[in-house]
Design brief:
Helix content of chain A: 55-70%
Largest sheet of chain A: 3 strands, antiparallel
Largest interface: A-B, 41 and 45 residues
Strand order of the largest sheet of chain A: 1-3-2
Oligomer: homodimer
CATH superfamily of chain A: Winged helix-like DNA-binding domain superfamily/Winged helix DNA-binding domain
Number of domains of chain A: 1
Strand content of chain A: 5-15%
CATH topology of chain A: Arc Repressor Mutant, subunit A
Structural class of chain A: alpha+beta
Low-confidence stretches of chain A: 104-115
Order of helices and strands of chain A: HHEHHEEHHH
DNA sequence: GCTACATTCAACCACATGGTTAACAGTAAC
DNA sequence: GTTACTGTTAACCATGTGGTTGAATGTAGC
């Protein structure tokens, strides 16, 4: 619909398209963590994790704030909402089992004319 | 073909991270379309659209089947479900307004979304 | 087989991504 | 200021992405 909305969805879905980043979101959802704490479970450099955090932050899915010499990573869960709302539009297509209907029509040689 | 859950989510979210592909999903949700019909609204080559369809197909969000010399593109809406379920886990964080609570508790700065 | 049409594949390009290591910068403690 | 620690930035590399054009494939009909 709106273009800025599209760009927002681009960045959110892109941020979610990496398993490491999704895992990081889970980690910080439960409890705020420092960057070091976020990075520790992952077998990659701190710099790599920092870049993942940049991606998540530019999608506004996390925020970093400084506390002393640490940076605290916090989830901004509400900003997942546009993605969930976008997906919710498709509920009707599986809830009403149109997909199953089409699978049925496709599976046999039933050719329902598109017109 | 998608193996693990994580890889499946990778491919789904990646497929959704492009506005053209999201738009294509909307287009074929309403009604099955040929590749040519899908491509017509977009200002890019048919080959480019075909590549977008490849991405959507490898995420199993669409299926193509041949009918005569045409290929019919059909939505496989149910396969959006893993993405929606992944996101649904975060509902509690905004529904219970823990996000706002944490912002309040942690923050001197009341940063409200400036967008 | 030949022609026309629908779509994909191949080769190519510019740029983004995810990772590395090493250098740099902010903060605290001495 | 120096040292130690936390985290980001820079430079680099291999691979992936989104687009192009043009050739190739598959199907229908003559």
């Amino acid at each position: 619909m709106v273009n800025s909305n599209a760009a927002r969805l681009d960045s959110i879905f892109h941020a979610l398209s990496d398993a490491t980043r999704r895992s990081i979101l889970r980690d910080v959802a439960v409890k705020d963590k420092t960057v070091g704490e976020v990075a520790r479970p992952y077998r990659m450099s701190l710099a790599a994790v920092s870049k993942h955090l940049n991606v998540l932050e530019s999608a506004e899915l996390i925020a970093r704030r400084r506390r002393g010499s640490f940076q605290i990573v916090r989830l901004k869960a509400r900003n997942l909402r546009p993605a969930e709302q976008w997906l919710a539009w498709y509920d009707k297509f599986w809830n009403r089992q149109l997909d199953a209907l089409q699978t049925y029509l496709e599976g046999d040689e039933h050719e329902h004319n598109d017109g």
